[in-house]
Amino acid sequence: MASIRFAGVRVAYPGAARPAVDGVTLAIPSACLAVLLGPSGCGKTTLLRTINRLQPIDGGRIEIDGRDTAGLDPIALRRRIGYVIQAVGLFPHLTVAQNVAVVPNLLGWDSQRVSERVDTLLAQVSLDPQSFRDRYPSQLSGGQQQRVGIARALAAEPSILLMDEPFGSVDAIVRASLQKETLALQRRTGATILFVTHDVEEALSLADMLVVMRDGHFEQTGTPAEILTHPATPFVAELVDADDALRRLSVITLGELTASAARGTPLPEEPGTIPALDAGVSLRAALAVMLETGAPRVRVMHDGREAAVLDLDTLRNAVRR
Ligand SMILES: Nc1ncnc2c1ncn2[C@@H]1O[C@H](COP(=O)(O)OP(=O)(O)OP(=O)(O)O)[C@@H](O)[C@H]1O
Ligand SMILES: [Mg+2]
After folding, report:
1. What spacing in Å lies between the alpha carbon of 39 and ligand 2's midpoint?
2. Which of 218, 240, 262 is the endpoint of a domain?
3. Are 38 and 94 part of one and the same domain?
4. 245 lies in a domain?
5. How far apart are the CA of 171 and the centre of ligand 2, in A?
6. According to the model, what pLDDT value does residue 236 have?
7. Between residues 212 and 257, the one the model is more confident about
8. Of 33, 57, 68, 149, whose Cβ has the fewest other Cβ atoms within 10 Å?
9. For residues 57 and 115, is the Cβ–Cβ distance under 8 A?
10. 284 near 246, Cβ under 8 Å?
11. Domain carrying residue 153
């Protein structure tokens, strides 16, 4: 478990007209999947690398679990923080197993423990250990190499994982499955993840916290639903395509829509005749159920209990911004 806090963090590359990171402040709670979204050159990679001190800062401070990273040993810090870089960056002369084992070996784990860990991790990223352990990176597809990169970053059970456009070079299907695996891994390990992308769909589907970055500063921070429904600036609205109704339907969940609405609406029908959907279901999926069953409303269930009833009009109004 680890929280990350940026306080007025600034990075100015020598000779640059303006800072690449210009005084950003943000607290990322432990076990949060935060996504940095912004156009090329806005400072995402630079900011990510300040956390493990691969990038020195020129102002402000960064805390992990409340401790200023300036006072920590950078090498020890980097071993605790998994890092998946923009280009996969596997060692070409090492096998898959040797690549994954780099940090555990540095940490001096015994070979039995390293070997078991490698197999577990390969299985977790859907690579069969038997057939992949002893291959070299050049004998893998791009998507398989990225999976190995993720397994390697996870090897020493880091409490923080930095992922810089980790799925950049794979097709849409592999990308979707890697996204699912990332979410599952995050839920299972409780790691705090800072994930960089300039793919809006990816950002919206992964983020607990979405951070929109522009020219070295944070334009807006919030949940995907908050940002889609209340974009703070025209730049944000355009970037996330907030006017796309289908996109809002896909991202906003029943729970988010009904949280603010009145509870305990009396039910005229027998509850059994109204479809019951979990609060985590998207409005888009709820709409599909309404259209299929002809039901004008759905029951929104939270932890198995009815939290609200949602009708078509409320749903329609939510989609109009
Ligand atoms: N080592 C460096 N020296 C000087 N300027 C740099 C250096 N690295 C990056 N920059 C500049 O800092 C700015 C931010 O770069 P950064 O790599 O952080 O952007 P990014 O948001 O990750 O972009 P992308 O989406 O293309 O990866 C850019 O203008 C870039 O040209
Ligand atoms: Mg980058």
Report:
1. 9
2. 240
3. yes
4. no
5. 19
6. 92
7. 212
8. 68
9. no
10. yes
11. 4-240
Same domain, 259 and 235: no
Query: How many angstroms does the Cα of residue 76 sit away from the middle of ligand 1?
Result: 26
Distance 280 CA to ligand 2 centre (A): 32
pLDDT band with cut points at 50, 70 and 90 for residue 95:
very high
Nearest-atom number in ligand 1 for the CA of 48 is 18
pTM: predicted TM-score of the whole model, two decimal places: 0.80
For ligand 1, atom 4: residue with the closest CA: 13
46 Cβ closer than 6 Å to some ligand 1 atom? yes
Q: Is 45 in the pocket of ligand 1 (CB under 6 A)?
A: yes
Place of tokens 């432990």: 30
Whether ligand 1 lies within 6 angstroms of the CB of 231 is answered as no
Q: CA triplet 91, 172, 211: central angle to 5 degrees?
A: 80
Q: Which of 64-68, 87-91, 94-98 has the lowest mean pLDDT?
A: 87-91
For 139-158, how does the pLDDT look when each residue is reduced to its tens digit (9 = 90+)? Answer: 988 788 888 988 888 887 78
Question: With contact defined as beta carbons under 8 Å apart, do 96 and 122 qualify?
Answer: yes
Instruction: State in Å: Cα 315 to ligand 1 middle.
Output: 42
Q: Is 216 in the pocket of ligand 1 (CB under 6 A)?
A: no
Coil, strand, or helix at residue 290?
Answer: helix
The count of domains in the chain is: 2
- Provide the 8-state DSSP code for 268: S
**55 Cβ neighbours under 8 A, 6+ residues apart:** 11, 46, 49
Helix, strand and coil in the chain, % to nearest 5: 40, 25, 35
Residues in the chain: 321
